């Protein structure tokens, strides 16, 4: 108690005053530290960069999410790889459709060799790896072609897997169906196509030579409406498969074209097959029996002897009939027969059901001569020359086949006047038009 009482009141006041001053100093020094910290340019810059980085990260993530959402809701993509048959077709189509031909290209080199041994090289340029843009049907399409690390085997060759992804705005999947259809059509139009002819060898069909060029149907000059008549009948038959099936009728059609040699029977059949996209046998084909009268001996005249065919193997008549419409005969079959001698054919061969249409291919009429002349010379020949040519041809004794007229015109391909002069000289010398 004595020690406590010994403390002076002045000392107590001094201690209290020191504590108060110390607290005041701390209160005053705290805002000064914060102010000085924010006034420090390095701290302010670092804090600003950190804030910008945070905002940028938020913006980037938001953009990624928005892009994913937008693609999922408002865009469609199509992905192909180089294992797909349509892959090169699509790349080639993209390159052709690009308004500004891309400068980033890859090349595919192909060496071709003809049957004669002649070689040629073709180069096909395709869009290179990376991103490209092109416009199709008023839509912009992004093309992303990438090469993967994965390796695939193709015709015993190991090649890297490649993919191409096409992306466009719109949710209509039909857009890509149309795109692929156009790319395929473009690719197939560049493939050399033609009329394929097969020969029967034993029980098999063997391809006879390379594909022939398709001949335009209107290049075979016939009498008025004859071509249209056969064409329309065949077209109706091709479209009537279900009609035949529903009624239990064999889906077959037979045609007999008869007339003198050189009247265009075989030429017309070839042109017709090419027009409808058919081959000359086997499937999706037209079966052609040329000079059918020479294939067998008539049953009515077994002693008949066609010396021109002596030594050749002939089929039996019953074998021919079985091949045409026997039990083993295939459905969806189109048969054409030609003959120069209708009277030599057995009635059983050309009865209805085996031959549904018979048409005569005759000699040239004046209109056919005129059409042949126009076909060769077109606008280079005057009306006067055409009229004169037709008039002179009409003065020849006997009948003239289209093949004879064509042979003459081939001698003077671009010289209509010389063709007329040749006719005049031939007529004056009383020679036949061979």
Task: Please give a quick description of this structure.
With 434 residues, the chain is of the alpha/beta class. The chain is 42% helix and 21% strand.
Characterization of this structure:
The protein has 434 residues and is α/β, with parallel strands linked by helices. The protein has 13 helices and twelve strands. It folds into four domains: 2-39; 75-189, no CATH class; 204-360, P-loop containing nucleotide triphosphate hydrolases (Rossmann fold, 3-Layer(aba) Sandwich); 366-428, no CATH class. The chain has helices at 2-5, 9-39, 41-74, 87-97, 174-189, 226-238, 241-246, 265-275, 317-325, 366-377, 383-394, 402-411, 416-428, and strands at 75-81, 105-113, 119-127, 130-136, 139-154, 157-169, 198-201, 204-207, 252-258, 286-289, 333-339, 357-360. It has a four-stranded antiparallel β-sheet with strand order 1-6-5-4.
